[in-house]
Amino acid sequence: MENTLKITNVLSDPTRYNIYQYLIKEHGEVNVNDIAKAFFIHPNVARLHLSKLEDIGMVVSYNLKSGKGGRPSRRYRLSDQVIELNFPHRDYKLLSSIALEAFMELGEPGKVALYQTGKKYGQKLMENQHNNLQPQSITIENKMRLLEDAGTLLGMYPSFSYNEEENVISFHINNCPFKEIASSNHTIICNMHQAFIKGMLEVLFENVQLQEVNNMFEGCENCTYIARI
Length: 229
Prior knowledge:
This protein starts with a helix and ends with a strand. It is of the alpha+beta class. It has helices at residues 2-11, 14-26, 32-39, 43-55, 92-105, 108-129, 140-153, 179-182, 186-204; strands spanning 59-64, 73-78, 158-163, 168-173, 209-214, 223-228. A hairpin with an 8-residue loop joins β1 and β2. The strands form two sheets. Strands 3-4-6-5 form a four-stranded antiparallel beta sheet, with helices on one face. A two-stranded antiparallel ribbon has the order 1-2.
């Protein structure tokens, strides 16, 4: 409980919370000056916010030598540790791991069920988020905005772009909401997640061909997809 109160206290500051969101979206390393410029604050204030996030394990840092002498630059990045707050405590991660293992033991039917379930819930999310949705009356730009909003709500922090000449949408998933359970068997989880995303896309577009280009579990900075619409 003491640790939970410490975490909520640190994240109660709006600027600090937004810095953490910024780190998730950027999915890279920053220094104090990067944060100071991004949030229009003094470097000392930026350093304080980053230190507070590091104190609760949400951010880690290290010194980077420039090779030119002088003081090393301190770099900050997101911690691999996941912070979970539940009142009272509930271990949904354990439940999801048990369910996943059960599906895995079913073999190919289990994989198919995971794929179909992921796609169904992807479609359901978009339909619930946007009642009376009429895809034919919405521009491509607005459709991408709807997808970004839904993806951010799920903790994916996606970014979309559209190539009009090729009629292709490319997008990055900057945060994996299934990271903890995917670390042990990412192929199954990634297939389910891809079906989930395809389900979201098919609410807005017909005949979507979705292709994975990069996967963060294979050493890439983020997961990248191309959707041919």
